[in-house]
């Protein structure tokens, strides 16, 4: 099985700005890409997931570095980023838009570029797509139940959420850390995620995630020419620190293993749904 | 040279405006085709035979002229394309109910996809200039793979509505909350609430955009290759 899709290069990297590194989820690749883009006139806006009240995820068109920084960090709940895509071009007048999204959102973006039925004059204005790895997502109340009922933390008090090492971690604004086993979060997963066979955002210009790299670093794939050029620019102008990706057991091997688990598990679900006559995307 | 005709039935001409809204690309398109008929921008009075006939607008069943034109374009076109919501899904004309002067009897409107067999249908109100050019280019090049979603749409989506994403996606445990449907909607009839589309039915004009764009209904193979 092809675990990662096509790519030109893969590295481990993190954002060079140490102050920003504290605010981001992993290596801060998404934040670095958009900040670099805005500061170097390669982007004039980006579609991101900002934080709303009680750690809700709210799609937003960010046009300043502050707004990009404010949106850093993973929200483990669906955030309809694409719902503001056309707005970025119409209302904000952006001509070079960056888009961050989970694999499904990157697929949706690609479809809207290839078949822009309801997207007038958008094609040439999507300057960069950054995909984030994703195993599954949660509806807001699913995430809330995990955090409030299982971790015993009020949504208002959440500073950061993370999934790693087989656990779902909740970090509070007061410095506490709570966690539950990932297995206990399965009942709250969005079921529509179970027909998805893309783990590493295979259609993005650049894809990034935590798996495969040490804590505080990210695994980064450059997939398209555009993505590679962008990433090289980030490295050359000092926005990123890099090191070769670890091929071994805790590096690409682990990433491939997780990607293949997702692919085969969800392919089974797709086959099952077909068998009992339920529709799947065709 | 591929011959193309543009025929207008009950519509606002916005689809043709959308085609001409391709600026410099329009010249490429016009360079690659022979526009043999278009009442708005050329002189020909009789609809000739053509490789591609783009029909915009729905058919007034109570107007025998419109009914004759619908039959006529089917005979004359190698590829008959329902261009835009009114032709493809009925669009705003789904709400027509007659009773207005000076033809109070003109009350029934159907998309041309329901009146004669159409080969391709492009939803949207209007469809984007890029998609019209994309379809014409694919038709000229015989790129059947690219055209497949439009041929599918012509067959099975004549009754499009915002409810499509509810019935075919949310109700089928397929919606992952990307928000693409909401962005594609020309009237902002879709709000995303708790990561799911909510349809404001009074605002929906049944253009077919959301259902066409949702990647959880149709995901053409050519989308899944990195270019
Ligand atoms: C639901 C979900 C599941 C994930 N599962 C995995 C996994 O299994 N393995 C793995 O290695 N990585 C996973 N990730 C990715 C990981 O958590 C980080 O998002 C990624 O490594 C980027 O980190 P960063 O430091 O580069 O990003 P940052 O610089 O912190 O920026 C993160 C960016 O992601 C955007 N974002 C945050 N939440 C969402 C959301 N819900 N939807 C869309 N955009 C969002 C933000 O707007 C921000 O721009 C997952 C992410 C999500 C949202
Ligand atoms: S376009 Fe996205 S949000 Fe809309 S119905 Fe389809 S999957 Fe759900």
Automatic annotation (TrEMBL), chain A:
Aminoacyl-tRNA synthetase found in the keyword field:
no
For this UniProt entry, the molecular function terms from Gene Ontology, in alphabetical order, are: coenzyme F420 hydrogenase activity; flavin adenine dinucleotide binding; iron-sulfur cluster binding; nickel cation binding; oxidoreductase activity, acting on CH or CH2 groups, with an iron-sulfur protein as acceptor
**Gene3D superfamilies per the record?**
3.10.450.750
Alphabetical keyword list:
Iron, Iron-sulfur, Metal-binding, Oxidoreductase
Enzyme Commission designation: 1.12.98.1
Domain (Coenzyme F420 hydrogenase/dehydrogenase beta subunit C-terminal): give its ranges.
Answer: 95-247
Q: Main EC class of this protein?
A: oxidoreductase
| Domain of life according to the entry | Archaea
State the signal peptide span. Answer: none
Identify which cofactors the protein needs according to its UniProt entry: FAD
Domain Coenzyme F420 hydrogenase/dehydrogenase beta subunit N-terminal per the UniProt entry, residue ranges: 10-86
Protein family membership: Belongs to the FrhB family.
Q: What is this protein called?
A: Coenzyme F420 hydrogenase subunit beta
Q: What is the scientific name of the source organism?
A: Methanococcus aeolicus (strain ATCC BAA-1280 / DSM 17508 / OCM 812 / Nankai-3)
Lineage summary? Archaea, Methanobacteriati, Methanobacteriota, Methanomada group, Methanococci
